[in-house]
C-alpha cells in the first residue's frame, strides 16, 4: 500500500502551501492531481486555481481528474502525488449522485428523503475509488482536505449531509494515513505520526525510546550530556584517509545539503591528482573536487555517495562512510532548524 499523508485545515490555513512544499521536499518531480472543476460562472475560483498553478514550478506535472484518479495509476506509480483536494473530489461525486446540481441547488431527487441515499452512494463510491488509488502501488500521496466540521452549522438538510459525508470521508482517509497534519494559521500540528513530521517546516529531531516503549523527546540534561560525549569523541586521534576527503555544507536558499569529494593524492612537487592519476587544478591550496552531490536529506545524500557512486567501494572506507553519515545528519538538522552547520 502507498504511504499516505493527510493535510487538513480551515480556509486560508496554509494547508495547500504546506502540502506543496512537503511534496517538493519528498521528490524533485512531484505530481499535482487536481480534483476541482472550474465553472464558467465562477471567476473567483478560476483566479485561485491560476494562482496555485503559478506557484508551482516547472518540476510539477499536473493531472486533472474529477472522479476517478485511479485511471492514471500507471503515471502515478512510484511517484509523490499531491491530491488537492478531497472536499472538491467528494463534491463531484455528490453532484454525480444527484445531491445537488451544478449551480448548488437541490435536485428533484434530493428535495426530499433522497438526500440520505444520494449522500451514502457518493460516500461509498469515493471510498472505493480512494482504495483503488492508494492500495496497489508504492506511491506517496499527500491529500489535502478542508476542515468543515469546525465551521458554521449548515442551515439546510442537504448541506448538513454534505458536511457529514465530508467528515466521514476525512476520517476514512486519516485511518489509512501515516501522517495527519492539521494546519492552523500556517503552522503544522501533527495529529498522527511521530511528533516531528518530516518536511520543510520541521527539523529532524532525535527521539529517545521511553521505558514504556513509546517515543519521547530527550530532556535538556540528556541532550547536553550527548553533546558533551560527542565533543569528547571528536577530540580523538583520527588518521587522514590517504585517498581523499569529503566537504559538506548547506545551501539555505535551495534547501539542500551539498557534498564534494577531494583527492589527497599528491606528488613531491605538491601537485594533486585524481583517482585515475590525472592532475587536478587547484584553487588556492585545495584541489578542485572530483565529485559533487546535492541532496535534500541525509539519507538521499548518503545513498547518492555510497550506493550510486561507482568509485565508492574503492575509495570510501567503513569509517569514512560512517563519518559521512553522521555529518550528513548534522547538516540536515541544521538546514531545517535554521542553525549553522559546522563540519566536524
Automatic annotation (TrEMBL):
A GO term, aspect molecular function: ATP binding
Keyword Hydrolase applies: yes
Positions of the DUF4346 domain: 241-344
Domain of life from the UniProt record: Eukaryota
Pfam families noted in UniProt: CobU (PF02283), PterinBD-DUF4346 (PF14251)
InterPro entries assigned to the protein according to its UniProt record, in alphabetical order: CobU/CobP, P-loop_NTPase, PterinBD-DUF4346
Protein's pathway: Cofactor biosynthesis; adenosylcobalamin biosynthesis; adenosylcobalamin from cob(II)yrinate a,c-diamide: step 5/7; Cofactor biosynthesis; adenosylcobalamin biosynthesis; adenosylcobalamin from cob(II)yrinate a,c-diamide: step 6/7
Entry-linked Gene3D superfamilies: P-loop containing nucleotide triphosphate hydrolases
EC main group: transferase
Enzyme nomenclature, EC number: 2.7.1.156, 2.7.7.62
Keyword terms of this UniProt record: ATP-binding, Cobalamin biosynthesis, GTP-binding, Hydrolase, Kinase, Nucleotide-binding, Transferase
Catalytic activity: adenosylcob(III)inamide + GTP = adenosylcob(III)inamide phosphate + GDP + H(+); adenosylcob(III)inamide phosphate + GTP + H(+) = adenosylcob(III)inamide-GDP + diphosphate; adenosylcob(III)inamide + ATP = adenosylcob(III)inamide phosphate + ADP + H(+)
Family: Belongs to the CobU/CobP family.
Role of this protein: Catalyzes ATP-dependent phosphorylation of adenosylcobinamide and addition of GMP to adenosylcobinamide phosphate.
Name of the protein in question: Adenosylcobinamide kinase
Organism (species): Fragilariopsis cylindrus CCMP1102
Record lineage: Eukaryota, Sar, Stramenopiles, Ochrophyta, Bacillariophyta
Amino acid at each position: 500500500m502507498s504511504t499516505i499523508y493527510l493535510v487538513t485545515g480551515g480556509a486560508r490555513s496554509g494547508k495547500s502551501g504546506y502540502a506543496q512544499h512537503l511534496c517538493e521536499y519528498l521528490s524533485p518531480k512531484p505530481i499535482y492531481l487536481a480534483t476541482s472543476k472550474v465553472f464558467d460562472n465562477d471567476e473567483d475560483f478560476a483566479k485561485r486555481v491560476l494562482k496555485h498553478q503559478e506557484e508551482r514550478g516547472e518540476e510539477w506535472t499536473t493531472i486533472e481528474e474529477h472522479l476517478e484518479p485511479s485511471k492514471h495509476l500507471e503515471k502515478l506509480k512510484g511517484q509523490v502525488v499531491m491530491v488537492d483536494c478531497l472536499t472538491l473530489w467528494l463534491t463531484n461525486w455528490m453532484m454525480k449522485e444527484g445531491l445537488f446540481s451544478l449551480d448548488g441547488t437541490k435536485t428533484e431527487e434530493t428535495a426530499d428523503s433522497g438526500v440520505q441515499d444520494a449522500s451514502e452512494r457518493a460516500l461509498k463510491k469515493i471510498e472505493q475509488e480512494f482504495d483503488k488509488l492508494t492500495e496497489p502501488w508504492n506511491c506517496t500521496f499527500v491529500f489535502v482536505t478542508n476542515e468543515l466540521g469546525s465551521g458554521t452549522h449548515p442551515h439546510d438538510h442537504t448541506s448538513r449531509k454534505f458536511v457529514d459525508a465530508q467528515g466521514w470521508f476525512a476520517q476514512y482517509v486519516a485511518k489509512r494515513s501515516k501522517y495527519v497534519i492539521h494546519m492552523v494559521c500556517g503552522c503544522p500540528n501533527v495529529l498522527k505520526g511521530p511528533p516531528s513530521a518530516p518536511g520543510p517546516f520541521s527539523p529532524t529531531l532525535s527521539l529517545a525510546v521511553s521505558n514504556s516503549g513509546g517515543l519521547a523527546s530527550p530532556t535538556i540534561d540528556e541532550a547536553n550530556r550527548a553533546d558533551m560525549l560527542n565533543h569528547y569523541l571528536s577530540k580523538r586521534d583520527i588518521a587522514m584517509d590517504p585517498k581523499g576527503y569529503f566537504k559538506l555544507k548547506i545551501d539555505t536558499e535551495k534547501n539542500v545539503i551539498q557534498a564534494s569529494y577531494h583527492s589527497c593524492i599528491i606528488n613531491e612537487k605538491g601537485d594533486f591528482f585524481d583517482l585515475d592519476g590525472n592532475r587536478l587544478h587547484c584553487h588556492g591550496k585545495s584541489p578542485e573536487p572530483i565529485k559533487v552531490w546535492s541532496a535534500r536529506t541525509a539519507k538521499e545524500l548518503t545513498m547518492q555517495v555510497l550506493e550510486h557512486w561507482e568509485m565508492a567501494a574503492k575509495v570510501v572506507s567503513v569509517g569514512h562512510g560512517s563519518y559521512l553519515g553522521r555529518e550528513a545528519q548534522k547538516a540536515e538538522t541544521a538546514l531545517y532548524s535554521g542553525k549553522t552547520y559546522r563540519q566536524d
